Amino acid sequence: MLENFEKLFENKISQLVKSVDPAHDILHFKRVVSNAKKLATTEQAEINVVVPAAWLHDFVIVPKDSPQRSKASRMSAEKAVEYLNEIQYPSEYYEQIFHAIEAHSFSAKIAPIGIEAQIVQDADRLDALGALGVARCFATAGLLKRAFYNPDDPFCKEREPDDQEFTVDHFYKKLLLLAGSMQTQAGRQEAQRRVDFMKIYLNELSREI
Predict the structure, then answer these.
(1) pLDDT in tens, 94-146
(2) What count of Cα atoms within 13 Å lies in the side-chain half-sphere of residue 193?
(3) Least confident range of 21-25, 31-35, 173-177
(4) Whole-prediction pTM value?
(5) What secondary structure letter does DSSP report for 209?
(6) C-alpha of 40 from chain center
(7) Residues 6+ positions from 200 with CB-CB distance below 8 Å
């Protein structure tokens, strides 16, 4: 049953993200789903909640610099459940899926309750880390026309990070801190591995500039 629904999810998301930034293209969704499936297997979570929530976690995409950003996950949850109802996905999972989508967002500041919601949050945050995280960070910066780094203090050694102005500041404002926010043990381990790589990247960047 779930395999057939997944084909519908992928087709729907592919249509939604055609003209969206590369940090939130269909490959991002596929990676989040893959992460979520691995974590769900490890944590023995309800796959019928985890998979649709992972596919539909950004069902409504709001730009990073929009004043509506903090509401994006709730908007996504509402639209996702409407869509699930349209395709007749089993309704007994709607409440958990809604919460998992609403709570996945860093901006929403909602604590994920239950292992399924924790997994979806971890799966999405993992894609903000590591080599892919670096690529996605700079892709978003290009769209927002933000400078790569502050020329006077590139690595925030003597100032508070300002990721509204400088891309590298986002590492210190958010990305390097994500490993500590992971909800599952497997998520924490993988997040730390990816953060370690990002620190290597920053060290190399420091050498080059």
Answers:
(1) 999 999 999 998 777 888 999 999 999 999 999 999 999 999 999 999 989 99
(2) 9
(3) 21-25
(4) 0.90
(5) -
(6) 16
(7) none
Q: Left (φ > 0), alpha (ψ -120 to 50) or beta: where does 136 sit?
A: alpha
Planar angle of CA 98, 103, 107, nearest 5 degrees: 130
In the chain, the domains with their CATH numbers are: 1-113 (1.10.3210.50), 128-209 (1.10.3210.50)
How far is the first Cα of the chain from the last one, in angstroms, to the nearest whole number?
A: 53
Residue 58 is which amino acid? D
Identity of the residue numbered 194: R
For residue 195, CA distances in Å to 52, 129, 134, 139 come to 27, 6, 10, 18
SS (H, E, C) 59-114: CCCCCCCCCCHHHHHHHHHHHHHHHHHHCCCCHHHHHHHHHHHHHCCCCCCCCCCC
